[in-house]
Amino acid sequence: MPVNETFSTYSDWTYGAAVAVYVLAMLFSLAELAFGRRPAAARQLVGAGAPAADDAPADEEAADEAVESGERGGRAERFGRMSVSLIVFGALLHVSALLLRAAATGRVPWGNMYEFGATLSLAAVVTWLVLLRRFPIRRLSVYLLLPVTVLMFLGGLVFYTTAAPAGPPLQSYWLAIHVFAVALGSGMVLVPGVVSVLYLVKTRRPRWATRLPDADVLDQVAYRTTVFAFPIYTAGVIFGAIWAESAWGRFWGWDPKETVAFVAWVVYAAYLHSRATAGWRGGRAAVINIAGFAVMIFNLFFINLVVAGLHSYAGV
Amino acid sequence: MSEPASGSRSPGAVAFLRNTWRGLTSMRTALVLLFLLALAALPGALLPQRSLNSPKVDEFITSNGWWGRLLGRLEFFNVYGSVWFSAVYLLLFVSLVGCLTPRMFEYLTSLRTRPVLTPRNLARLPHHADGETDRYPDEVMTAARGRLKGWRLDVREEDGGARSVSAERGYLRETGNLLFHFAMLGLIVALALGKMFSYEGQVVVLANGSEFCNSGTFAYDSFTPGLRVDGTDLDEFCVKVDDFTAHYLPTGEADYFRAGLRYQAGDDLASDTWRPYSLEVNHPLRVEGDRVYLLGNGYAPVFSVTFPNGEKRTTTTQWRTVDNLTNLAEGATKFDPPGVRDPAERRRKQLAITGLFAPTAVLHDKVLASGYPDLNDPAVSIEVLQGDLGNESGRGQSIYSVDQSMVDSGRLKQVARANLRPGEELKLGDGTVVHLDGVQRWVYLQVSHDPAQVWVLGFAIALVLGLVTSLVVKRRRLWVRATPAAGDDQDGRTVVVVGGLARTDQAGYGEEFERFAGELLAELAPDGGDDDPVRQDATAGRKT
């Protein structure tokens, strides 16, 4: 099928626009972080109305709510809201870029490393937007957008691939299923990876982190997101095995990509277990979560680019 | 890691074994073993592996000297069959069994036990609410039970005419958790069985109606048997490759590959019935529990050699693709002189045609290259070698090249070289004529057999189902206590207290609890609930 050049060009433009909007959202989020009150100060302000429960996250939440209602006109508040609007706008552009790619190539828009990176970062951004509705973490947006924009910059500048139809190995409906599940799972675990770093900063260097939400909130965000992403990623790996059975003649062959996917899976399994083991909750669990994300990144870049394997056609 | 249980001083071998077992099955050890497994699997991705690319391993060892040899001796080029990798996963397997067995019994017991006693002070639970009603405690219990459909319930009588109901829900969480872990055990066992009874064979077949039969290892170019497979008793089926079509985009990228097959298996073998199948990448032929895959393709130039005595021989040998973008191929087509009985004479007259084949010839000053992967303008650039091919030397040799040592020792000499297109010919000094008749295509097929893979799939599906269940379902408890109010003026009034506790993760239980408590207390409220008697404390917030 011929590639529609017009759509492909529009896709590239919207991709660039999405990155620009994310960078702008980052600046607004940074402004919110800079001008915002420390949670502790906010809590004192509204302390009278809050219940004297020892449940810190609830307290934190109450404080945040109070800030929202009490200082609706505050500068930080306005910056925060604008950053969220910009993230939503950026995500819409991001979705359009992928849809246009799909229209240009006549296949799903995750057929090479550039497109995979784009899908993965969209998954991370959407996960973040969902989490924003449930957790008081808006002022952390800058920390999430930083790796997302780096990823998208790398994708657009280094790994960019001209729109092309899929070759024979990729002509399978498993391309839509397996690669999407893996991109979704990988994108989602970017969030706990980042949040776990913040958790470590919050618990080990509290003086640097007075503007971060409570450690409990960070821990909850990391755990809940990982718990959601882990089955998706597991299913993604299993879909890959099913595809490998019909494409390569075996469902598992310790291809480098498979091996590192397995290693990442084991590390995330260890994370879930660590939360049920005395002495491993909190800091150590956060370290394991970060290690899991590091393995994912290693699998995306090092294995695709340096190690030759069956997945290498997914490369640049 | 030191064993946590080895601290206790009970003497004797039994105590030692017991402590070892406890240590091995503790969560902490399982965690460490998980890390070891991840760590042990990594070298397989970073170092070349025998099973994937044997020549690369040899190359690595040669270029790294003693370091490479040491890694080889430590099985770093065969990680997933190595002693240390097996040790880690076997320990993990034992640890898993040791952890799951008692949990299984605990789980079965918990299915039969009544929900726990109602705590004395429900107001101290993370979720709680209270209210008053003019109904009797028994009526409160009936109302509560009506709203607790699907919960495991136990109503108890307490001192002073009080009643309480203790409810628990979410047993599926543990069910899912156990299912996940048992599915994992099953998956490992199925994998092991697969390693025993599977086999995999590769073969090159010319796409000119050539036939291949899965009748023994001799039919394959390479064959990897499982531990319990000796190559006899293979599931018999035959495949004929009639044609092969490749379609390329103008950019040279492949669009599709398709091999036209006919196959016969089972009863068809006896009746000699052939069934058609269009074999493509991603669409293997599944027959007799085996799968046939299209893994590769290439070109085979057809050469005719007319020897000085007038006899003509035609040979088609596959040449191997050396450039995947342009399908430039190299190879060697070898001939024995016909009618020469004397071995010494024959060893002077053997012939080999080696060189390059380009499907779309591009000549740069007589140097042949290929400009496009498809057969647009094929040509070969060949050397003809005459002499001793070394077939009787006892050494195995590649079908894609001549034995270089024969050339080096001068027993195989180059007698001519030329670029030929189909229909063109080359005359040698002794009157031999080499003629390029044309080109055929070959396909590289793989036959795979793994009787356990459907079990692996089944366990993998169970694993995901168990995982999702154990992560989504929440184990939670709920209590309602109705106590007759004290004091004379309070006659006929009942105090209702509701308490809730999530046993695993508090998050998400708050909403469900508030809804339950609110609705129950509203239903019980006196006077139709005009003045809301419900005093609901702030619970764990709206954290979900």
Structural summary, described in words:
The complex is a heterodimer of chains A (316) and B (544). With 316 residues, chain A is mainly alpha-helical. Helices cover 72% and strands 0% of the residues of chain A. Chain A contains ten helices and no strands. In chain A, helix 4 (75-105) packs antiparallel against helix 5, helix 7 crosses helix 10 (283-305) and helix 8 runs antiparallel to helix 9. The longest helix of chain A is centred in the last third of the chain and has 33 residues, at 215-247. Mean pLDDT of chain A is 86; it is low at 40-63 and 65-72. Chain B has 544 residues and is of the alpha+beta class. In chain B, 32% of the residues lie in helices and 32% in strands. The chains are: A mainly alpha (316), B alpha+beta (544). At the A-B interface, helix 3, helix 8 and helix 9 of A face helix 2, helix 3, strand 8, strand 11 and helix 11 of B.
SSE diagram, text form:
The complex is a heterodimer of chains A (316) and B (544).
Chain A: H1 5-35, H2 39-46, H3 56-70, H4 75-105, H5 113-132, H6 141-157, H7 173-204, H8 215-247, H9 256-274, H10 283-305
Helix pairs in contact in A: 1-4, 1-6, 2-3, 4-5, 5-6, 5-7, 7-8, 7-10, 8-9, 9-10
Chain B: H1 12-25, H2 27-41, H3 43-46, H4 54-73, H5 83-112, E1 127-133, H6 137-147, E2 152-157, E3 163-169, H7 172-197, E4 199-206, E5 210-213, E6 222-225, E7 237-248, E8 254-265, H8 267-271, E9 275-280, E10 285-287, E11 290-306, E12 312-316, E13 320-323, E14 328-335, H9 343-349, E15 350-358, E16 361-364, E17 367-370, E18 379-387, H10 404-408, E19 412-420, E20 425-427, E21 433-449, H11 453-472, E22 476-484, E23 494-502, H12 509-524
